């Protein structure tokens, strides 16, 4: 892949497209109360990142505002505290700035760095006036009030370029589209194009006609990134990127790797993958690679394998999850050695399985050496084995002191400047991405692990600034154009789609809906709404989103259907949820044990706080979410269904992320149990029926729909009329059709 990232300089990243009043801010807290979208303006790391770089002084990176729109009073801030009265501690080493535009227009910033002076452009779009939380704007000539929550989602675009050799110019179409629920009209759509400020190409060389840009080839003397963002008069949509080559070539660095479109992802909680505690290590995982390959897994995600506090103690809260990193450059002793891990990766690659590493970099762990180096004096060891001593004094001379977010005041446990922690859990101190040395340390970890694995899953991705993710993704894509990035953002954010992540979680929409349907609390048709919501929230068509029904943080869907729902057959509910996840648009996903009904046959993990009233953990809600794998006893029919479902997904010409979703017309008396939809891939079309009920359900489909089920191979017809055929479906049925007819038609 062509290097177009300018990584040999300390440039401040790509241009930004924001709205007036939108804060580019990185608070010192990671929790629900302090925002889901963190960012700052940061110098990138020049050259190969070092694990233990020298600290930078404030004077090493100096920021200035060169140009602001008329009437603007906006300024740069080094360590603001925008949300409450707990002031952010600033040791004077913050090398990043934060910013809030106050007037529409273009802002130009300048960064003086050790290797020279660099510029950054920020374009701010107007924000419509609010009157008592009411949005007022012109809808097709009629001025009226619309509640802010009802203004619809942001627009989106997809850059497509071609080189016009005769004209000697690149032509870049932006293809902007309004959100499906937008209140604006197409005439309101505008697109702004800007080249990377580090490129020789200037904004004046980009001619914009409507929503199309033209760039003369003689203005492109090196691989050059061009960015664009849509604006519908109300909201700014996600930025896309295209790279123009001097020889007329074109690249799309903001696109997911193609292999993702036919991939089934499988998550493993490593220390529970064996049948008993202490049995699982990399050697055991390597032995099970053939099992994964036979099942049809394409990419396996391991939850954290690095040294951490929780795997080192008996009965840790939540199990030995490992989300408290002690060392970013090694593997945990109980799992084996780095060579053992490499052997596991090699075995996966030989079986055509990619490996996804769990990158936890919004916080580290209490036992991390760099964190411990900042502590000068501790109080007494608490009697509670799950608590940590108070910090009575800090070593402010530690070169790592500013690597962690802090508040100027003390906390209940710690002296000033007290740490801030991931969701106030002292085990997990927050990392400070205002410090360039810390950023380089984490980039070095990204560089290190990307030599071994094929993908990163990033824990609570909104807990890390966008500026870092952009830089980290470019680093891996320089080495491997097919390297994949998955963000855990709950709820999901379209801003993570801006040259940062290729694949996104969908917890609050798809997963929570699937659980509610499995419990019998919502109709299956709500799953279609969850899919539609992705476009309404502004995700472009090239975005890829996971269809997860379980993961290590959520209850097992079988457990919920059995313990909290009123489904007579919880295993059937789980099979139906998986069938929907594999046949609806998205990337299908399995959490280990789903294929073997682990919540029925596995060995549960017990909470260490089961007998305590003052403490609890998430295992008390579902003891099977991280249960030991049931390798001996399992439901063979259930396993066969999941195995066939994966094969069907791989063999089908319509399943996956790209074919259109159609709300196919049908009739049924079982609306609380049955989901019906169509998938349209052009020449190939299918009607899918999914049944959550414990007994077969009947559905009337249009008479043009074939009644032979492509999943089972059986003809499921039980009746017909002039305009319809009636089929009876046990769990999943897939029918061929030469046309689809939306229910709204």
From TrEMBL:
GO biological process: carbohydrate metabolic process
Bias type Basic and acidic residues, positions: 49-59
Gene Ontology MF annotations: cation binding; hydrolase activity, acting on glycosyl bonds
Membrane-crossing segments per the record: none
Name of the protein: Glycosidase
A matching Pfam family: Alpha-amylase
Ranges in coiled-coil conformation: none
Keyword Hydrolase recorded: yes
Highest taxon of the lineage: Archaea
Domain Glycosyl hydrolase family 13 catalytic: 267-646
Organism: Halapricum desulfuricans
Alphabetical keyword list: Glycosidase, Hydrolase
Region ranges (Disordered): 40-59
């Amino acid at each position: 892949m062509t290097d177009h990232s300018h990584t040999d300089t300390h440039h401040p990243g790509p241009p930004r497209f924001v709205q007036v009043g939108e804060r580019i801010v990185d608070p010192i807290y990671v929790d629900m109360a302090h925002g889901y979208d963190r960012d700052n303006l940061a110098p990138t790391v020049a050259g190969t990142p070092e694990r233990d770089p020298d600290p930078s002084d404030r004077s090493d990176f100096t920021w200035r505002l060169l140009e602001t729109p008329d009437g603007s009073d906006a300024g740069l801030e080094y360590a603001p505290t925008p949300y409450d009265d707990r002031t952010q501690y600033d040791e004077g080493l913050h090398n990043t700035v934060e910013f809030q535009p106050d007037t529409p227009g273009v802002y130009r910033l300048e960064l003086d760095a050790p290797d020279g002076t660099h510029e950054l452009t920020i374009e701010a779009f107007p924000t419509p006036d609010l009157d008592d939380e009411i949005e007022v704007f012109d809808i097709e000539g009629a001025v009226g009030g619309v509640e802010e929550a009802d203004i619809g989602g942001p627009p989106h675009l997809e850059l497509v370029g071609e080189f016009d050799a005769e004209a000697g110019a690149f032509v870049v179409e932006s293809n902007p589209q309004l959100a499906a629920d937008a209140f604006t009209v197409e005439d309101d759509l505008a697109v702004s194009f800007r080249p990377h400020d580090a490129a020789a190409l200037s904004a004046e060389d980009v001619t914009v006609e409507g929503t199309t840009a033209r760039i003369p080839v003689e203005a492109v003397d090196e691989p050059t990134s061009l960015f664009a963002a849509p604006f519908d008069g109300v909201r700014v949509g996600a930025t896309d990127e295209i790279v123009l080559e001097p020889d007329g070539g074109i690249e799309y660095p903001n696109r997911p790797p193609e292999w993702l479109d036919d991939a089934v992802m499988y998550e493993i909680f490593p220390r529970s993958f064996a049948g008993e505690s202490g049995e699982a290590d990399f050697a055991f995982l390597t032995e099970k690679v053939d099992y994964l390959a036979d099942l049809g897994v394409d990419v396996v995600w391991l939850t954290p394998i690095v040294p951490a506090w929780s795997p080192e103690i008996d009965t840790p809260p939540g199990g030995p999850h490992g989300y408290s990193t002690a060392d970013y450059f090694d593997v945990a002793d109980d799992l084996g050695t780095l060579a053992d891990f490499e052997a596991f990766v090699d075995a996966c690659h030989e079986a055509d399985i990619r490996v996804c590493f769990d990158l936890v970099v919004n916080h580290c762990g209490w036992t991390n050496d760099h964190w411990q180096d900042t502590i000068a004096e501790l109080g007494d060891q608490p009697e509670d084995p799950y608590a940590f001593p108070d910090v009575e004094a800090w070593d402010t001379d530690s070169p790592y002191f500013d690597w962690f977010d802090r508040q100027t005041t003390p906390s209940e446990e710690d002296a000033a400047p007290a740490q801030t922690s991931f969701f106030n859990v002292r085990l997990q101190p927050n990392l400070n991405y205002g410090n360039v040395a810390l950023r380089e340390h984490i980039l070095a970890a990204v560089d290190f692990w990307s030599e071994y694995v094929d993908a990163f899953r990033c824990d609570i991705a909104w807990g890390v600034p966008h500026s870092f993710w952009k830089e980290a993704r470019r680093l891996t894509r320089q080495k491997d154009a097919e390297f994949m990035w998955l963000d855990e953002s709950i709820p999901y954010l379209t801003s993570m789609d801006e040259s940062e992540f290729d694949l996104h979680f969908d917890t609050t929409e798809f997963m929570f809906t699937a659980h509610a349907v499995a419990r019998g609390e919502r109709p299956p048709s709500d799953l279609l709404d969850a899919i539609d919501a992705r476009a309404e929230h502004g995700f472009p068509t090239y975005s890829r989103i996971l269809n997860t029904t379980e993961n290590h943080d959520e209850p097992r869907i079988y457990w919920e259907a059995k313990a909290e729902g009123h489904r007579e057959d919880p295993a059937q509910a789980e099979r139906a949820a998986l069938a929907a996840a594999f046949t609806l648009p998205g990337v299908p996903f399995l959490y280990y044990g789903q294929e073997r009904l682990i919540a029925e046959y596995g060995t549960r993990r017990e909470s260490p706080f089961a007998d305590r009233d003052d403490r609890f953990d998430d295992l008390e809600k579902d003891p099977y979410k991280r249960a030991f794998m049931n390798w001996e006893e399992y439901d063979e029919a259930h396993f066969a269904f999941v195995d066939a479902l994966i094969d069907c997904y791989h063999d089908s010409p319509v399943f996956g992320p790209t074919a259109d979703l159609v709300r196919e017309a049908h009739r049924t008396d079982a609306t609380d149990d049955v989901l019906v939809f169509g998938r349209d891939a052009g020449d190939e079309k299918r009607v899918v029926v999914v049944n959550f009920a414990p007994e077969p359900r009947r559905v009337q489909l249009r008479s043009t729909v074939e009644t032979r089920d492509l999943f089972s191979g059986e003809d499921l017809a039980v009746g017909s009329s002039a305009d319809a055929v009636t089929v009876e479906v046990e769990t999943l049925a897939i029918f061929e059709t030469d046309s689809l007819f939306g229910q709204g038609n």
